[in-house]
Structures are given as C-alpha cells and as structure tokens.
Amino acid sequence: MHADEGVQRQRIHIDREADVYNAAMLVYALVQQAGARTLLATEAATVVSELGMNIVKYAGRGSMTVSLQTSPRAYVEVLAEDRGPGIADLALALTESYSSRGTLGLGLPGVRRMSDQFDIRSEAAAGTRVRARRWLQDAPPSTAERTGPALPDSPAAIRQPGTPAGWQYGQARRPCYGEIVSGDGCVLQAVPHGTVFGILDVLGHGAEAHRLARHCERWLAANAHADVVGLAEGLHAEVRGSIGLALTLVFVDAQSRQAVVTGVGNTRLFCLRVPGLCIDAQPGIVGGNNMPRLRPTRVQITPQDTLLLTTDGINERLTVEQLLPLRHHGVQHVAQQVLREHGKDHDDATCMVLRCPP
C-alpha cells in the first residue's frame, strides 16, 4: 500500500473489456463509500469506461491508476496510460462532435466535461496519457488547488474504506456474458472490535439480480456487527421472498485476529497459507425457503495470511493448492488473475482478496 499525504492509489492492468468493467466497478464503489453523491460515482465510472475502452480498442493494452483522497479535499482521479499508436489529431479528438467507436459515445470531450481537472498528452507511436480528476464536493476548489502538481506515477493498493489498519484489499468482478451489470456483491465494513467482510451472489443475473445485490450491499453495510450469524439471518429476513442469494460473511477480531465465518450457498473462503484452508458455505438460499441453521467456523488468522472469497462464477473445482503460489503477489493482481483464469463466462463472477499485515 502507498499513501502520500492522504492519497491512496491502485494501478489496474488493462488489456480486455473485463478489466475495464472491474476498474469502473471499483471506482463506483470507492466514490460511493467516500460519501459522494450517486451521480458523481456514476460519472466517475463512466470516465473509467471511456478511457479504458480507448486503451483496449486502440492500444491493445495499458494501465489505469485510480487515486482517492478523502482529505483535506476529497477527489477521485483516473490516470490512463498506454504505449499505442497515439492520437493522430488531438484537436479533432477533443471536439464535441467526436466520440470513440465502441465506447459509450461520449469520447474524450465527454470525459473532459465530467472532469474538474483534465489533461492529455499523446505522441505518434509513443502512446497516450490522460489524467482526469473529479472533486467529490459540490463546492469548486480554489485556483491554487486546481493548478496543483500532477500526482506520482508509482501507485500501490488503495485502502478501501472499512479495510482494517495494515490490511490490503483487492477485488475483481465481471458480469455474465451478454450482461452489462452484475448480480454479485461485496461488503467490507468496520464494526466495534473488528471488521466484517463478505461476498454475495444473487441467483440468476441481469438487472433484477443487480438491483437485489446492491440492496444487500447497502443493508449489510448499514447493519454490520460482529455476530455474522445474526447478520446473515437478518439479511435473510430482509430479502425473504426474493429470488435469493448465496453469501459468505467473515468477522475478524482486531485484537485476537480470530475470524468467525458463516455462509449459505455456493460461495467459498480460501485461506492461503501453508497448509491452506477452504471453507465452503452451507447448502441453502438466503431469502429462500431452505435457509439452514447456521454453524459458524472459527479460524485463527496469522500474519500475512491471504483470505480469498469467491462466488460460484469462479470455477468450483478450484483448490487451495492451486491458489497457494499466488499468496505473495499483490492482492489486486491475485483477484484479477483468479477472475481471468478461473472465471466462467456464463455467470457473474467475483473474487475478493484481503491480506493480514505482518
């Protein structure tokens, strides 16, 4: 993790549409959890989508660096970089009548309109670098702030709001092929004496599953507490009669580092250490008629353990032994690699990763 004067950064490799979707979902969640209006979160995700799809379509590969600052003035910034052919006519690309093929149709002019600070550099055969910053408050920043220096280009992991002190967090998800939204979800919430985190998978996919997943995320964040069995049962009562979902929830005590794990359905928790551990959720459906009596599992977390949660969009045959070689890699890299190598195209797929500090 890298934090410079309160700025937290995460770099995401981009070479396919799924990477762009993951980056957009990450930005949307970060902006919302920073307390900004939903409109700002949507616009920030749109900026990521536009810039990311430009990388995929015109350069083939590149990177996006997401920066988040919560004080003294909150902002989200996206830095998109590639070493593609460059933009032949930058002035034309920035005209209002110009948009990128295959994106949302807003193009660079739309990105510039949705940004409080925007700059672009492009050279033939050397690539393109676009920086777009959006302030998260309604009030405009002062002139001095608006003309401040560019941020460093050597980012590390963003500390997601709710992440325990010293822990690292990463997440990657993508929707079912043919869909533009996902019915999977994640929760990461600080509570008295520790942290609750988890993963959920609404049955089916598409818009209905997406709406229920977002409702469950909000409900879990608002009602989180150390009793994860009671929390899961509370969510069951909240969504009873819906299409239902699978769920794994974990509470980690800040002092003892003991984890309490409970789950229902086809979600799993892997603990990457030697020997490794995999905890499958109990059969059943949260919100359905076959909600089981929950039996929590207790696990002692040791320094630098990597905890990895998956929905059933990740191959169910995946074993902890296959994952162990990843335990020393960066958490966002782990999440993205698991999604790429083991994710199913025909289902929503999500991988969430947390690593305990030394």
UniProtKB/TrEMBL annotation:
Span of domain Histidine kinase/HSP90-like ATPase: 39-138
Highest rank taxon of the organism: Bacteria
Residue ranges, annotated region (Disordered): 138-166
UniProt xrefs under InterPro entries: HATPase_C_sf, HATPase_dom, PPM-type-like_dom_sf, PPM-type_phosphatase-like_dom, Ptase_RsbX
Protein name (Swiss-Prot/TrEMBL): Anti-sigma regulatory factor (Ser/Thr protein kinase)
Classification lineage: Bacteria, Pseudomonadati, Pseudomonadota, Betaproteobacteria, Burkholderiales
Organism for this UniProt entry: Pseudorhodoferax soli
PPM-type phosphatase domain sequence ranges: 163-356
Pfam families: HATPase_c_2 (PF13581), SpoIIE (PF07228)
